[in-house]
## 1
Amino acid sequence: MTVTHDIDLAKMIADTEAEILRVVGERDGATSGVYEMIRYHLGLDGVDGPRGKRMRPLLGLLAYASIAGDHAAALPGAAAVELGHNFSLVHDDIEDGDVERRHRPTLWAVHGVAQAINTGDLIFSLSRVALHRLSDLGFSDAKVLRLMRLYDETCVLLCEGQYIDIATSAQDEPMTVELYFDMIGRKTAALIAASIEAGALLATDDEEVVGRYRRFGWSLGLAFQLNDDLLGIWGEEQTTGKVPTDLVRHKKTLPVLYAFEHATPADRQRLVALHAKADPDGAEVAEIVAILERAGADTFTRSEARRHRDAALAELDALAVVDPAAREKLAGIITSVISA
């Protein structure tokens, strides 16, 4: 008989943030400033602090709850995932030269590069510390060690993906579409897959179930990134909450890379010239969009996003162990964040 549990997403997020604050905490003395920086970056420095959607820890908690019921025992893993994600964001902001995140100055823009690098390193270390509380909650040493291995392997993939991103950005020729999929697999899909796999690992020893959750997360991660690529060019500000500025910022996302490979020679030459402009105006951005659409870049990207979204849903549908309420929430997240 299937037992359905109440699934409260807002409570899951609030509990995750409380678990993060348990790790970060209020520190006194000479080091209190660095913990204030962490809370600032996480948006936990005030009631109305700007925060991310906490999607990665939420997905992990839903995976755990879909098998085991109440999510509370998996909270240390959720905190570790969110801290791990955010250490990379602190470093990304420095590497990309971004001075704003979530509508306020980035950490390095406020405190300088040296302090931001150190704070990012500390966030990474605290993400490991967060996992140790799983032992206090009764999980076996073998289970905790396996989770740490998963986490470490995911961080390796994340750094490898960032290397590809930085290295190809320094080259005149754009990366291939094939390499782009490799990069986003490491940078985006790996972390989402690991978040979901971690929740399943804590809830069951059934390797087939764990494998399906990981494949679900991998497909979801790819679909999420491709959908973001679409919104960065064709999204509407009132829908996404942000102006679609990927072309103004010269971001070579999938639609642009596809157009470089499939546009006519004349369109490709014009696309190269337009991308070389430091600050393209509205008419020039509109011309880039027209070139992308003539090359079929929007259609291809949307088709790929839908393909990976449907693959994620298929993995979810194949999981007989999933609590119906949790399944509904997981499917709801997929359809709400992936509009392709």
## 2
Amino acid sequence: MVATWSCPGFWTTPGKESIKPLDIPLSETRRLNLREIVLQPVAAHEEERFQALMEAHHYLGALPKIGHTLWYVATWHGEWLALLSFSAAAWKCAARDAWIGWGFRHQYDRLHLVANNSRFLILPEHPVPNLASRVLALSERRLVGDWRERFGYPLLLLETFVDPRRFQGTIYRAANWRYVGDTRGFRRTRTGYSAEPSAAKRVFVRPLHAQAQARLSCPVLDPQYRHGAPNIMLTAEQMVSLPDFFADIPDPRRGQGRLHPLPAVLAIAAGATLCGMRGYKAISLWAEDLGQKARARFRCCYRNRHYAVPSRTVIREVLTRVDPQALGHALQRWNAQQAAADEGLAIDGKTIGNAIDAEGRQTHILGVVGHQTQICHTKKKSAPCP
């Protein structure tokens, strides 16, 4: 007769620990050594099995592999024990943002340094004590290097969300994750965010660096953590104010068939460029992703109870035909208004080696950027006075 014992088993998502006593042979439990567990990325030929198990055992079901996502499987002598998914951070989370201490402008440019533990599943046939904590610890150690190798930049912080109607986040607390507050209950939809809040989630974070909080909230981000062009996030007030600065610019288009107002087209193009978009296609895709509230702030065309954004063709036509001097003056006035939000300015100048004018003088470029808003308030290209 084989001796048995009762052990709490749990299959989990962020904070999911559903207690279900199971009878496990004592001899089998002793054979599973936590130090022998191996965590490795899910191979391409294993992804179908990974998704099938998530769909079968996770209460939220499978999660598509969209954007920056890494899947892991914890194994013991080749047998699958647990599955994890890490993906891009939540766009907005007041509890997390308050704990970090960054402003919304910093947040938009630094979200790539945060990853979300979007799924965590302990397979139900493996209810081993301390297994969840061991798997989380292994994932933290491995994720730092894997994320940098795969996506080209490091991580400083992990986050996850726990539904208190089901779970308490016990396994995250045991793995030294920090509870920082609750969400407001709103969720993202295709048109922006839900109008009414649903159940709030508990927010847990896990710093991957001893100074993660300080580095994420510092006024100037360390160069090693920068990725891509510096971007900003526009506030609702900024979206509303942008069209006003383009109201006096002459419209170069014919009056016939003119659907989208010129101030709305220029405001969307300027907003997209400030948020890091480059080129007509990127600006158009950025505009299509705008929710109805954002489109209303930009004063887009309203037809059939829906705010429509200009197409790529319209954006290209306007930007290639509009008076560049008038456009530049309008942007400078908007920049001047926003400059009051900056407590400090960064000034940098460059001399272009082979750019020599007719009189033999080299061309100089001078730029002024606000520390808080990260807005380029002026950029001047000129030759020095003799």
## 3
Amino acid sequence: MDRFLVGSEYANHLTDADLGLLASVAAEDAGPAVDASALRSDPAALLRLLEHPGAFRAVLGGPGEAVPASPFLVFAVAVQRAAAELASAGHVPERTGPRQRVPLFDAPALRDFLAEPARRLFLAELLGSFTRVASGRYRARVGGRMRTRRFSELDPVRLAGLLEAVPEAERPGVYRRLGDVTLFLTGVFPDYVTSRAFGPVDAGRLLRAAGLPGPQRERLAAGPAIEMLEHLGARWYRIACELAPVRTARLAVAGDVADRFRQARRVLNHLADRYLLAEGQPWFSAPGS
């Protein structure tokens, strides 16, 4: 996905107030005035302003200062800020358990992930998609009888159950969302994933939904939950790409992220620690809370 298309996708998400905030960034440099209304039709200029160091300050403001920014814009500039922070980082903390961190010297891999504008857009869209979580009921045949089941986008086990109920044409979308929820949970709530430690029944359901052979299922089920979900999330993105009748540019980015799933997860860990779950101003509530 080239920069022009990436800028166009950002424009589709941003509100008029968002564009006004970004236009104010140009004024910080005492450069030529930027017409906020024109930014929507100038994707290249819009992307340059999002990448500007002043965008983070303009959107998040000072302590206690409220600005009319949409959640998507907040996530977009937070991702850009992470790219700037990791550009000079020697190491990044890795969670090894609740409230436990060890330094991992993998910052170059995270910088490489964030170097591509389409991947930064992908993360902002992912976070924005979970500000409202879909849930509901569906009918499925179980043991020869029709039964009502529940699903939630924050419960990969129940979401995987939809694969047995939806038409074949809708399965790529379910697989794509399974990849999304897996990346979101391991990225934003890794402590929850670690402490939950999917039991044998739930782990078996997830591994079967991914179509993995028995020996591989057993090996993944016996390992850490984070590693199992990393493998499954990447696989679900790839299946969505394989089954989709048309491989769009956006779906191609999901396939690209599948090859770098761990890096995407680690970038989200950094964002969660720094910005998404800040004390007193968390953007997301832990699953089940």
## 4
Amino acid sequence: MEMENLGYNDFFKSNRKKLNLDDFSVGRVIAEYRGSYKIKNEKGEYLGKITGKQMFNASAREDYPAVGDWVAIKELNSEQAAIQAILPRKTIIKRKDIGKSGAQVIATNIDVSFVIESFDRDYNLNRFERYFAIANDGGIKSVIILNKTDLIPQEELNEKLKEIKDRFPETDIISTSVINNNGLDELRKYIEKGKTYCFLGSSGVGKSSLINKLLEKDFIKTGDISSYSHRGKHITTSREMYFLENGGIVIDNPGMREVGMADTDAGIDSLFDEITILAKDCKYADCTHVHEPGCAVLLALKSGEVNEKQYQNYINLKKEAGYYKMTKLEKREKDKQFGKFIKNTKEDLKKYKNNF
């Protein structure tokens, strides 16, 4: 396979030269395992590991390779390689690592993120905005895939499509079904040679089934429908890259139960650009758009210029991203204050009950 068909372009070539890595081979990380990576280039595939020096110098998860990365490697034999460096990333998708303080890198060097929802899972417009925010922050265009359209009547589907278009007028939408092959030709035409597409969505929305259709082979194991919940079972447990006949590159991802906001302020501002523009006319530069007098956003909300559901999601995402950016000390103090609030509320309630 030629390097260009793996997504190698002038951006990576120039950065390889700047970092004086021309003496090393380069390859793309196409799968990630515990402590090792599958790397592909024009010579073949290698199982690669990072050096001890890289591990010592790493200060965060983002310093380790991820699926989509271009890495400089030293071939140890025909099957193994040592990763010497990670080339600068053109784009990145990351989210808050649920239950941890750091960010989880989902994939890198992505051109388009396909955000998938289906009618038998968690269809929700706010969830679309969460995915859009993390993609926008990484400089990645998002496209909506509304999957399993065979589950609802055409009239109801048309209503849902109108609902989505009203909320996201500038976002492309593709309706698909692997049962009746609806929209699959449209999806294939959307995918271009040498470009990388990342499939994002909850467990069971049909990401792997769609990729299998695009590959025209059942490369990815998919689950049967649960007899209890009538929902597709979660099967994909790791990220992996696949190559289509037309030269397009797709990445399958494990389903996400939660889409936690990392340091994505820029992505949120870009997504909610209507609110961001209005905010420039607020009386206070640090306006939170929640209670301040002279807030242009609240005024627009009151007049109906800003959609109430979109506004509420904007505020929630901003608060979440702001909390993520706090230092551990600030978070501890905030949690401590909240604990005091709960304690005082319980005491006040107890006094209230004793007075009656």
